[in-house]
Every structure is written in C-alpha cells, then in structure tokens.
Amino acid sequence: MIINRHSVLINVLLPLALGIGMLYGYLHFCRAANEIGLGKGTSFYMPVDKSYPIHITSLDTAERMRQGWKERGCRKLSLWFGNSQLNGINQYKPGEKNCTAFIFDSLKRYDQELLGVSFPNGNMQEFLTAVIYLSNKFQVKNIILPLFYDDMREDGIRADINTLTVGDFLRGQRAIYPYYKDIPSLNLIKNAPSAFKSINKDRKAPDQTLQEVSEKFLDEGLNAGWNIWNNRANFRANIFNDVYRCRNFILGIKATTIRKMIYGRYISNFNSFKDITRYCSDRGISLYIYIPPIRNDVPPPYDIGGYNGFKEGVRQECVKNKATFLNLENIVPAKYWGKKGTTTFGGGEEIDFMHFQEPGHHLIADTILTILVNNLH
Amino acid sequence: MTFNSITFLLFLLIVVVLYWRLPKTGRLWMIALSSLVFYGFWKPQYTLLLIFAAVLDYFVAIEIDKRQEPNKRRMLLILSLILNLGILFYFKYLIFFKDNMQELLNFFGSYVRILPALKIILPIGISFYTFETISYTVDVYRRHIKPEKNFISYLSFLVYFPHLIAGPILRASDILPQFNTRIAFHWSFITEGFKRIIFGLFLKVVVADNIAPFVDQGFALENAALSATDIVTLAFLFGFQIYFDFCAYSHIAIGCAKLMGITFFENFNFPYLAVSPKAFWKRWHISLSNWIKDYLYIPLTGKKVVYDRQEAISEIRNSSTLKGYTALFLTWAIMGFWHGANWTFVIWGLYHALLVTIHRVISKFTGNINKTLLNISGWCISLPFLMLGWIPFRVNKISTVKAYAGKLLHPSQYLWLGMRENTYLVTAFIMLLTIITYFVYRYLVPVIANTILGQIAYLTVFSIMIALVIVFLRPVSQFIYFQF
To answer: Which residues of B are catalytic?
Structure first.
C-alpha cells in the first residue's frame, strides 16, 4: 500500500472530520444530563430564594446554600433529604412548586426554615455522608429522610460527595468518633479515590500540579469556544442512557418489571441507614424517617414480601434510636401520578412510579409541615 | 503529564512538529528536554532524580567498558546496582520496611520507634526507569552492547517520554541505534502513530475508565456483602480494567514513538486468550516478562545468559530442577514486590509461580491430546485462575485475600449474588467482545483490509472511536501502572 500525504487525508483527517461530524449530528438528539434520569414527562424543579438555592442536588452547591441561610439569619433549620421524587414534578406546568419550596415558604412565619437536598437514585451511604457533612456545616435541628426500597439497590458515591473537601472533612470526623470506622461510605471514600458516577465531571479536584493548571486552562478555553466540548457531559449522559435503553430493550425490562433486591447492596445501605439514626440520636438531631409515596393503582414493581420486611425493619430501627417513623405510602392518590417517556427503544410512555404531580407535592408538604410545626417546642 | 489529557495532546503536537524540523542532534535535545518537561508537569523537582540516574549509569557504563579486570568491572556494576536500587528502596520500600520492622518489634514486646513517621512521595515511573538503566549497565557489563558515548543520546533513551512512566521497558540495544540515526520523515509514521494513539485513548477513556466504577464499588463492599460469584466477577472485571488501562498506555506509547519514527516492541498480545499461565506471560506486559527473564530469572538459575531469544527460552524449558523451581518462585516474588511495597503483591507473584509450576507438571502428561482440544480446555481452565490472581493485586490487605479465598472455597457462597445485575452483564459483555475482537482482528481484518468494504468499515469504526474519545477524554483517573 502506498502511503503518502493522501493516505493521511483518508486515515487521519477524514475520520477526524467524520467523528466530529457525528457529534454535531448527535447534539441535536441530546437532552440535558439532569433531565435524562427523570424521563420525558417529569421536570426538575430547583427552588431559589434571592438567587440562593434552597434545594440542592449536589454538595458542590452546599456552600452557596449555606450563604443564603446565614444571610437570612441562621434560622432554626430542617434538612429534607431525598431522591429525585423530592424535586421532580410530573407533568410540570409553569408556576408550580415542589414540596421543599412549599415548606420553605410556610415556615417563614415560625422563624424556621427547611432546605432540600436530593440525590437522584441516591443510596444510604451517600445520604449518610451528606448528613454528616451538612449537619456540621449548618446547625440542623431536624432531618427528614425518605427510605426508598428501590434505592436500597443503589451503590457508589457520586463525585461531588467524593471530593477532597468532603472526603478530608469526613476523615477528620472519623478520627474524632471511633464508630465512624464502621461506616461503609467512609471506607468507600478512603478506598476509592477515583471519581464515582462522575459523568458530569471533566477534571479531578485541582491538586496544584502544572498538569492540573494547564488542563483547567485548556478545558475552560475549549468549553468557551466549542459547543461540542461544552456539551460533553450531556453526550456522556445520553450515551449511557442509550446503552441503558438498549439493555432494557434486549432483556425486556420495563417500568413494571419487578426489581430484585440485591443482598449486598441492601446490607450496606441498611447499615448506613442505621448509622444515620445512631448519628442523629448522638447529636440530638430529631430524625423523621418516612416510607415514601408510591402509586397504589398498580402493583408496585417490588417483591412484596421483601418490601414489607423492609418497612418493618425501618420501623424497628427508628424505634430503637428514637427516630420518628412515618408511613406515607398512600398519601398521594392515583390521580396525581403520571407517565413518563419509555426507558427502552420504540417510543411511547410508561408508568412513572417515582414522581408525582404538583398536588402530590402539596400533600406530602402539608404532612411534613404539620409534624414540624407540632414539634416546634 | 498524563496521556489522557488535552495538555498532553497539545504537547505532543508541538513536540512532533518541532522534531521533524530539527537535525539529528537537535532531535536528541528535543527528546531529552521535552521528556523532562513532560515529567516535570507532575513534580519538577523529581526530574533531578531522573538526571542523576542517567548521569550515574552513563559514566559507570563507560568505566566498565574501559576496564578489563573482571573484579573492577564487577565492582562498578555493583556500585551502579546499589545506587539505583538504593534510590528505589528509599522511595518505594522504606516505609514498608520500617512498618514491618516496627510490627516485628511490637510482636516481640518492644515498643521502641525505629524511625519517625515518614512521608515519602513515590516518583512516578521510578520502577520502570530503574529497570531500564540497570539493564543498560548490565548489557555493557556482559559486553552485549558498547556504552553510549553521547550523553544526550543516553539521556534521551532513559527519559524518552512515551515510555517513561509505565513502559514498555525498553532496551538500549533496541532504541539507541534508532536515536542515533537521522530517520527520514514518512507519512506512514503519522497515520500509524495517530491510529495507535486514538485506539489507546479509546481503550483508556472509553473502556477502562468506565469499568473502573464497577470495580471500585465492588471491592469497597464489606466482605459479608460479597458472594463467591461476586468475587470471581470482580476478579474478571479488574482483570479487564487493568488490561485495557495498561494496554491503552502501551498503544499510546507506541503511537507517540511512531509519530517520531521510533519503533517500540509490542507489549500485549491478547493475553486473556492465552491457553496456559506460561503463554499468558508471553502475551502480557511482554517487555517486563522479557526483562525479568533476562536479568533475573536466568541468572538465578545459574545459567549463562544467551542473547539469542530462542536459546534463552530453551534454557527455561530445561529448568525443571529444584534450582530451577527455586529461581522461578524467587523471581516471581521479586516481580510481585516490584509492583508494589505490599505483601499482597508478593502473594500475587507466588500465585503465578504456582500456576506456572502446575502447568509445567501437567503439560508432561498432555503430549498425546489433540492440540485444538488441549488449547480450548487449556484456555477454559487457565483464564479463571489467571483472573483470580488479580485479587491480591487489587486488594491491599492480606486479611482480605484470605477472606476472599475462604469464600471461593465454600460451595454455598456461589449460590447468591451481591452486586447489581449490570456488573455481571458488563463482565460477560466485555469477555464476549474480547473474543469477538480477537477473531475479527485475526481472521476478518486481513481478508477485508484492502477492499472497499474494509475501508468503509475502518472509517466508520475509527470515526466512532474518535467521537467517543472526544466525549470521554478527561484526566479523572491515572493509568493504574503509574503507581508502580
């Protein structure tokens, strides 16, 4: 084969141009990374107060939320943790609000406030880490935490929790409190320096090497000047979503498919949940644990025996560590639940088991608000 | 500087363009200086160590060559070995040694602190360049090569950035003649180099980095949460991660060198399709296996090193004596220890020595079996054992190795699953893809390479690879072998 400058054209420049061209083509089909997890039909709602977030989905913005809390006078604080149910609104219409925004507004008259923290598909190890971190960053009076049976299958620590700042802070705490040694999420942070679930991260935390400085400079330059580069996080999310849909298509997985509990994950998550109750009890933080709303017009995609055992286990753990247990399974009626885009190929819609419409947010907010107000003193 | 970064790609572009515009001496200076810049992007002060290693062996090799008296030659060689291995010991093994000594003292009831707490940062690539500089001096001592008279040539060989951090482990006899010739530019260098770099980046940023979270999460689980099936799956997954990660590095290294007209030997050849543990080590990290064989194993067997590779291999075949097996186990223990200052690496090495020994014994009785059947059964039996060998390599405590081994030996532990379904799916998918890739590469590519269909297939696959590299290129994780 004769290799000359034309072969460079065919072997180097043409594939390069085609590769970039493919990305421009794919860009038209790309959705924002944070919308993908929710599926079409459900929207993210991120409430703010005078430009300060009052609900966050990443610990990267915790400091900004804290500034707002301080500026408002460091009022007595409740933190409401959860997954995407907390800030996802099904069939969202402009002007609608989520449950944390409702309570934030209502508590003003009691000189208290509530802030929301949700991690989509968050697991208990992540929540434990976030509870320890945020309860030391804020003066927290109450913590509200739903326990999703689904999410007991989840694992890993997302990148924003596994940052140097949070990791170092927790390692410090670990030295102070001996029982932290048993906390699996801290072991995860210690043992796994690579960024988990890092599809939205393009760089490691800066460690002051020349490499990091130059990488940051070049990355920022490319982000500013090339929309393909700037959309890489969205590309990655869409690619993973397509792989996920492909898997569902091949294996025939649908929203109604029963999810098997994963023993290892369940144990890790339940242990972390126990650590949360123990931690709050030791620190004098009132803990409200609830079994979250689920559609009651169709059978849940769970193994019912396992689900009932889970609820009972959660209740017993709450009793043991003086946490308040609430079962809010049936609080949102069937009419306030909707559908979402399918998670397999072929278009169409499927039942959304996780996110409800705005009236559902009203109902759950009212319940939580009543409890908080009743426990004001 | 890490290969999977925009900084490196920009650096490479500048270096390659300048390189081809310079005369021979200029090129050597270019290689030496750019390589020091490449290394200095991590910790500039550690470039002094590199320069020291180069200066030391440059002069020692010349002195060895000048002397005729065997004793003096040997003394100079020992001096070089002591200094090189001393530096390696200080940076890589002193803390480990101190901790073990302390534990031993504590065990015997003494609580005297032998050394204060040490904070030593391991210079990346030190194990690799130490081996290269040692092999150079030993080759001069054995009169296999003449010492390099031009210091910049020698410095360039030692610090040449494509192989500096994680190999392939080069021999002076392979590289110095290429540096000392003014290679004429050819367009094939650009096309071949570019292809290898893209393929390497694809393996690293698209494949290895996306396997990493599964591996990290799995190994971070408590022992109680893992079944024996999970441990086997994790062993396979980590095996794939380290293979794609390290193989990626080698592809990029070979590609970068090729852009400058320099040829490196291949470092991998579908290792997971090896039909025996011995065959595996002829396909995995080939440059290290050859180095260990030539500079450690054969000398330990007491045999003379012959610089014809075929003869050296035949000597190994005839090493089924007590001395041969002692050399084998000792070599593997050292090879394990070379990878890291932890007893788990020694276990990893000894485990492989045991596999090779078992294979040697079994192969004495398999002479009459049909070769195809032998290969298929050899692969089916060897692969799981080779993969399980990655467990002590990945975990950092002997207690964890013991706990995992206990589970693997318990039949009831194979009856439940502790990880997400995706973990098993991904593992099976990668295994299948590896086999398919091998057959496509081996049987389909040669047939269609020069046809229109082949060109279209190449363009499509390569364009997709480029697109994915653009999307996934992020220096969020180092190459695994950087830590060695």
So the answer is: 339
> With an 8 Å Cβ cutoff, are B1 and A218 in contact?
no
Is the ipTM here above 0.90?
A: no
User: Which domains, ranges and CATH numbers included, belong to chain A?
Assistant: 36-198+241-374 (3.40.50.1110)
A241 touches chain B (CB under 8 A): no
In this complex, the residue of B420, B422, B476 whose CB is nearest that of residue A198 is B476
- By CB atoms closer than 10 A (0-12, 13-18, 19+), residue A63 is exposed
- pLDDT computed for residue A154 by the predictor: 84
pLDDT tens digits, B426-458: 999 999 999 999 999 889 988 988 888 988 998
Q: Is the peptide bond before B168 cis (omega within 30 degrees of 0)?
A: yes
d(CA B316, CA B306) in angstroms, rounded, equals: 11
Subunit contact B467:A23, Cβ cutoff 8 A: yes
Cβ-Cβ pairs closer than 8 A, A with B, add up to: 161
Of B153, B93, B148, B150, the closest CA to residue B120 belongs to: B93
Whole-structure pTM value: 0.83
Burial A196-218 (b: 16+ CB within 10 A, else e): bbbbbbbbbeeeebebbebbeeb
A residues 260..299 contacting B (CB < 8 A): 260, 262-265, 267-268
Partners of A53 in beta bridges: A48
> What is the sign of the dihedral through the CA atoms of B32, B36, B39 and B45?
positive
What are the C-alpha distances in Å from B222 to residues A132, A173, A206, B164? 21, 21, 30, 37
